Amino acid sequence: MRIANVVLNDFTRDNRVLKITESLSSEGHDVTVVALHRKGLSQDEQRNGWRIKRTRVTTSALPRGTVFGILKMAELALRVVWKWRGMDAWHCNDIEAFVLGWCAQRLNPRLQLVYDCHEFEAERNAKPAFERKLVGWLERRMIRKAAAVITVSPSIAAAYEERYRGYGLPQGLLVRNVPAPVNSAKPSDGDSSPAKPNLFRQRFDIPEGDFIALYQGAFSYNRGLETSIAAMEGLAGQGLHLVFMGYGPLQNLVDDAAKRYPHVHVHPAVAYEEVLDHTLSADVGLVSVKPTCLSYLYCLPNKLFEYILAGVPVLSNDLPDCRSLIESFGVGSIVDQDDANGWRRALLSIKAAGTAQFDRGLKRAARDLSWESEVAPLVSLYAKMADQQL
After folding, report:
1. Are 213 and 265 within 8 A, CB to CB?
2. Band (271; pLDDT cuts 50, 70, 90)
3. Contacts of 178 (CB under 8 A, 6+ apart)
4. Which single residue of 100, 123, 135, 317 has CA 20 to 30 Å from 200?
5. Nearest 5°: phi and psi at 158?
6. What's this model's pTM, rounded to 2 decimal places?
7. Which value, to the nearest 10 degrees, does the dihedral of the CA atoms of residues 230, 235, 240, 243 take?
8. Are 313 and 282 in contact (CB under 8 A)?
């Protein structure tokens, strides 16, 4: 089956798209990742059994905003829809790609669409009310044209079912962001813990025995970076360190914190293949997303699974699906007060008690959670779609 895996970014750090592409390719499908071109990147790349085709978009230099976004989408429709309309299926990552897929389906009625919602698309962070309403309007009118709708958390799956069941909502599949094990992060068997490197201790000269809390992921708004930094006040010399690993618009904020506090450190983002090896170097992983929108309230972020499968316990604020996963496996704790004092108390408490209490739960999670199992329903879906075309 010829599949266009359409993602409207430059496809340099989108781990979910990468994992799905590799899984479908390994099943014999002819997969092309259709992404956006950026200076310094190749337009055409051949990978092991699949390829990347990046599209040049002249309007990409325009500022952000609804009006400019419409202009960008118009150019994308002209360039992407026309070129890739002849594929057998489009795997549409997020609402923007789904809109383009819907347009392509108007030109090729045999084209099958799979709508992969990386978030609760109509309830995303920092979106103006007009844009949220527009996304909801588009989904109500287009969702019946999809062969399936993929969501990333049980709460988002339930929200889509409740919101769109009267609008021809097709089959729904839950595919969480469980990482594929790589390098030393992969245990040798179900009862063995991954080897533990000391990459952060070596890079930042952190003494052996000091406790390392890790924030990994986007340095973006409403992710709790400010609260995490504030929690570090007054902890210098107490053997507790906070490492930020990632990139994003709040880079200056974390850089300034590292200058002010000797126990706060900033590590640049690393390649997907290196993420879990670095995660292993921490003692606890932080999930500090602020529930400022339904998409964030219902999230199950990549980092949560990355921490767990690296054998690192999790400290999270009270997000329902995160709490459910953490408590069901016994792999961490929930902060009882989402402010600087609450996070400071929680960090000091888990440091004092030690992390051995979570070892059994982490080993069970390593046995029960795997990308191969997670993606199996999606692989089956594409197999059925391919059979229907014969």
Report:
1. no
2. confident
3. 305, 309, 369, 370, 371, 373, 374
4. 317
5. -65, -40
6. 0.91
7. 30
8. no
Q: 287: which DSSP letter? A: E
Q: Which helix (H) or strand (E) holds 3?
A: strand 2-6
Percentage with pLDDT > 90 across the chain: 84
How many CB atoms neighbour CB 263 within 10 A? Answer: 21
Judge if 2-177+371-389 and 183-368 fold alike in CATH terms: yes
The Cβ of residue 327 has, within 10 Å, a number of other Cβ atoms equal to 13
Nearest CA to 179 among 295, 18, 35? 18
Architecture of domain 183-368: 3-Layer(aba) Sandwich (3.40)
The first and second tokens of residue 288, run together, are: 């500090």
Angle at 83 between CA 52 and CA 26, to 5 degrees: 35
Give pLDDT, residue 138.
97
Of 219, 176, 100, nearest to 374 (Cα)? Answer: 176
- d(Cα 98, Cα 15) in Å, to the nearest integer? 19
Reported CATH class of domain 2-177+371-389: alpha beta
C-alpha 161: how far from its chain's center?
22
Segments making up each domain of the chain, as ranges: 2-177+371-389, 183-368
Q: What residue type is assigned to position 228 of the chain?
A: S
Whether residue 117 contacts residue 160, with contact meaning beta carbons closer than 8 Å, is answered with yes
What radius of gyration do the chain's Cα atoms show? Answer: 21
Q: With a cut of 60, say whether residue 192 has pLDDT above it.
A: no
